[in-house]
Amino acid sequence: MARIFKSLPLAWALFAGAMPILAQTPAERAWKILDAGVADKSGDNRADAVRTLGIISGNPKAEQLAEAALKDKIPGVRKAGATALGVMGCTDCIGILKGVLSDKDASVVLAVAHSLWTLKDTADAYEIYYAVLTGERKSSGGLISEGMDTLRDRKKMAQFGLEEGIGFIPFAGFGYSAVQVLRKDDVSPVRAAASSILANDPDPKSAEALVKAASDKSWIVRAAALDALAKRGNPLLVDFIIPLMDDKKMLVRYTAAAAVIKLSSLQKPAIKPKPALPKQKKK
Fold it and tell me: How many C-beta neighbours within 10 Å does residue 191 have?
């Protein structure tokens, strides 16, 4: 019995030490995991932890952590922060995201553009996607003027396309053909995605850029541009699309044909003049 009483202080100490763990709620434990993740020494771990913050919408702490990631020294972490803010729908973060458009890493700039587009702040997003598709700025000045060289970094652009995978391409249904393009074509997937987003840009310059892209050397860019032109719903573009119905790539032909059918249906039929009624003779 004496042994039992002697061991009680030790048992109580062990129990007391375990109490904070037992009292910890699942949510508190979850935050500890994420807090440790965003502060991890490994850039990959930080990026993974930050990216998952996008799941937690409407949470001030999650927003703050994602915003802080935009200043990380590792581009992948900054990109994850930009992506998370878009996914969580943080419209209050639009101004902060715009401040990252001059980032020196192409993948970060593209992630910011995609988030701005997701958050319905389309003007600057369209500016970036236009630059991605054409290699030129749509207008002088603007938020991306300083970071224009970033979008010419083909290695970074290709890396972004590979990392985002098929999901970033507007033609995920292309299947194996799209995978082949991802492996051997530098930036076509990213430019194809840019074409898809420019479908909603009302600026006539974007329409001109899409018409030009419809003759691009990459079939996936041609197909994406045709799809975007069809979505713009401007029947005046039909004449530019008709030649693509003879494209050497069958998928491009099909896309062109579908675009022609859609846009032709939007053309107003010519109003035939009514025949003049014969004049009645006066009695």
Answer: 25
What lies within 8 Å, CB to CB, of 3 at 6+ separation is none
Helix (H) or strand (E) holding 134: helix 122-134
Nearest to 78 by CA among 147, 166, 154: 147
CA distances from 255 to 14, 103, 204, 223, 232 (A): 70, 36, 22, 6, 14
Burial of 143 (0-12, 13-18, 19+ CB in 10 A): middle
Task: Give the whole-angstrom CA distance, residue 99 versus residue 95.
Answer: 7
pLDDT higher than threshold 60 for residue 183: no
Model pTM above 0.85: no
**pLDDT tens-digit profile of 197-223?**
888 888 999 999 999 999 999 888 898
Q: What is the pLDDT of residue 92?
A: 94
Angle separating helix axes 60-69 and 43-52, nearest 10 degrees: 140
Read off the DSSP letter of residue 251. H
